[in-house]
Fold each of these.
Amino acid sequence: MLDKTLTQLAAALKSGEFSSRELTSHYLQKIEKADSKINSFITVTAEQALNQAEAADKARAAGNAGLLTGIPLALKDIFCTRDVKTSCGSKMLDNFIAPYDATVVEKLNSAGTISLGKTNMDEFAMGSSNENSYYGAVKNPWDSTAVPGGSSGGSAAAVAAGLVPAAMGTDTGGSIRQPAAFCGITGLKPTYGRVSRYGIIAYASSLDQAGPMARSASDCAHLMNVIAGHDVRDSTSVARGVPDYTETLNAPLSGLKIGLPKEYFGDGLDPEVEKAVRDAVSVYESLGATVREVSLPHTHYAIPAYYVIAPAEASSNLSRYDGVRFGHRCNEPVDLVDLYMRSRAEGFGEEVKRRILIGTHTLSEGFFDAYYTKAQKVRRLIRQDFLDAFEDVDVLMGPASPTPAFDLGAKKDPVSMYLQDIYTIAVNLAGIPGISVPAGFAGGRPVGLQILGTHFAEAQLLNVAHQYQQATDWHLQLPAIAEEHA
């Protein structure tokens, strides 16, 4: 089963090669035996999963099965899931049992998928390495001394290790694409507003977006068919029709115009990563695409703008965790101020505290216009850079990260960690979609090719990614741990 993609598993279930209960039991056993080595799950919902699997088998026997009925998945522990702990990787929410399902979870349940559990993540999605989790760091399945990327590192590692065929992640500044690149899987960040944020614990509300993580673009297309669409409960959800993302997967690429942003191939880019990316671009040329250099002149302002806007929104969103209504509460507070101060000091980790302080400062009187307002103006310029580029090319390509996965504990300086997101952050500021696909190795660790499109161009990105995966086999390669206990 481990060598099958989600799409192939769906076909096998339909043909009766195995039942959903057998498939679910297989993955639960794999998690039990192997996850101690990578720490990709916070919560495993075995009993619930087996009950869902039995229901899926009954639906299939009655002729009521959809394409994904009976397929096991995992959810990043940022999606509220009814009657299941939803911690966001934080001590603050270690005791929080969600009373409702996020819209994404509702849609997956309606499609008949099975949740195996909740995956590990950087606390409140703040991080690029999955080392900021209250539940311990996640390890990269390709090399246990390396990080898996973040903040959706648990989802990426679980898919790469063969513990689950697909998982849901969220992306605020690269948190789907960067861990997908580090773990050698496919990860799609949709256009902002394409997938509902209702029931997703907020980090930065104008940047957060949910998306699928799987081994192939085809798998991600099937998942997008389920999770995309308007939601009246989410004021940022876009009322726009949803195409069949699988319909154009096999469209030929002849005439495709690819742009290579010159800012993505400068200082700081690992030579082996650059070679892998340029080799991937050469494959596209062999498939009939044309390539030209383009410029995104405000790229170098993306990180400073992001680290003003995102912490500002985080400081507002995280103010609700006060020890009163839900979440961690300190013992025996002497008064209300003590309750607030000690509950937040005990409940939040260092990186979260750092970003709350930065955000509170930039929103304070006397600094709001100097920092937050100015950062929003820069954001508009970054967005316009992309719009200008897409007037001349269909998609942009470049590395997902300047380096392959770095060693656990290697980035002790917060700024050096923030710089890892140089190629992904601008995409969230602009609200456009992006996908990372496996494109080789550097020093034995996976390299991701990032493909970007204009707003609501997910179908085109999936087509471009799928055609590359038809011509290469990087996405089919598995780490040794995926074959253990098979």
Note: The CA atoms of residues 70 and 237 lie 28 Å apart.
Amino acid sequence: MYEHLVIFRFNEHFDKGQEQALLQALLALKKQIPGIIDLTAGVNVTEEQQNVHGYTLGLRVTFESQEALREYGPHPAHQKFVSMLEGMLDNVVVVDYPI
């Protein structure tokens, strides 16, 4: 299995009203993409404000294999989500590791 972690930092063009639509689109990926064992996503609510660095949305996906993780990136449902982010991102951090 592989874990895929992503945190998003949005730029000044991001409308906070879009946050729930993005979150729902992320959560829907679990049923749309084969090889996903578990998926959680949410808005950052940490009290450690000194460590936020502007990152406000997080995603964790558990894949059944490294191959499933590789197939996730180009999958049409994932690409549709990526297109929703156009012009809104300042930075994204991604961490993948075997579990």
Note: Strands lie at 2-10, 36-43, 55-63, 89-98.
Amino acid sequence: MDAVHPKDHGTFAEQWEATAQGDALLDAVVRIRQEGDPVRYRHMRIVTVPVLRDGAVAEWIGTVADAEDQWRVRTRDRLLERVSAVSSAQSLPRVFASTAAAVVPDLTDALAIFQLRYPDEADAGTGALYATRVRTALADGVAPLGPISEDFALGALSRETIDRRQTRMITFPPGQPPEGFVSDASAAWMERARATSIALIPIVIDGRTAALAAASSCLGNPPPAEIELGLLEEVLRSVEEPLRRTLELQSIRNTALVLQRSFLITPPPIRGGEVAAVYHPASTTAEIGGDWYDATLLPDGALALSIGDVAGHDLQAATEMTKASSMLRALAYTAGTDGPAHTLSRLDQVTHGVSTAALITAMHAVLRPTTGHRWQVTLSNAGHPPPLLIPAAGHPRHLTGAATPDLPLCVTPGAARHEGEFDLHDGDILLLYTDGLVERRGTDISEGMDQLAHRAAALRSSDRSLSAFLKDLLPPAGEAIDDIAVIAFRADRTRHPMA
């Protein structure tokens, strides 16, 4: 029993003891210590039965055979089956989580996966490379890793692994990693976990190290054998293709987000009122919508507000969004005495000629200050959710009458467009939003609209900034199923006088 690997000792001892109580056959594959330095273990198959005399075990009869290749084949097939469900449809953390869970504790006691933040260049001041810890899997009893900042400076061992794109492993006495090889945070954890090794395995995508897997033997257990380290490398290589596709989708989404946010302007300061807007992308790696908002001061002193949503969830939707929002702004600025319905009609005409979007919903409103601390609002709705009026006193209500929706853009050329009018008094808020704000899984959109009105009533306060009010209206993190764009105007000539 002294020669049995510490991680196999408990299970093998139970099997041996159970067999000794009767005439059953013991058939087990365990790691047995080999002679030599450094200490090495090899998988052996032990098949044996006890010989009983007078009810006691007198001796054992059995065989011992090398089982290294048999163990490798069976373990390889089992682990690869575990990660076979990993696909590019998953978010990057889920891909890494599935991979980490597959190899702990079979091949290692702890596995942490780090995505490189800046794989091609080091910090100009310190020369450090940075990564974000994406996922961690730990065997029972292993000390948890402490908190790590978003930008985690990598140690010398990581730098060498990234540069050479080859696995590197160092071994050491329990809880005593050598200085200078790993970061201070990693060294402190290895001491708590009584680690005996650290193996860094590069995850290479298109010839570049995109992530690092850090595997450790802990609790004083021996370092992994060469066959175990080889299997760990093979499992990680098996997910490189779905990882590559996931990273590509993430890159596309990041590009779309940058493009989209470049067109989401900072609302201008308004005399007699306050404008605020927020954009909230859905919590998904692969998709990005075509939502936008805009606020423009017109030559005659009026304020134009618009919000829209291009059908689709990809880079093309974001590209078409930039066309539509830019054209609407230009048409609104040059509209003169023409109202919002005429502006949307012209936009519909132009998009049929220069856009490939299949469908665009939009709301366009023009707000003009009038006498008696009022703003006159004229708006036109192209298939968009109705705006929400949040009065200074009274219950919020959706303006389904004043903003009866016409057909969306890009559906029928020359479709009739209509307008609605109403007044805003001091303290009233006009809220324009995309459908992501009121859509929830398993519920009707009308229910979401009612919930929005109730939330707005509870959060409404003249003492709070309009920006803070909008942020509190957003759903909790992880609940949004679509991107959300919101823009709002609050009439307030007391704090924002006209002159």
Note: The mean pLDDT is 85.
